[in-house]
Amino acid sequence: MLAAIALGGALGAPARYGLARLVHVAPGGFPWATFVTNITGSFAVGLVLALVLERFPPTRYLRPFVATGFLGAYTTYSTFAVETDLLIKDGHAAVAVLYAAASLLGGFAAVWAGIWAARTLPLSHGGDTR
Question: In whole angstroms, what is the distance from residue 4 CA to residue 66 CA?
Answer without folding.
Answer: 8
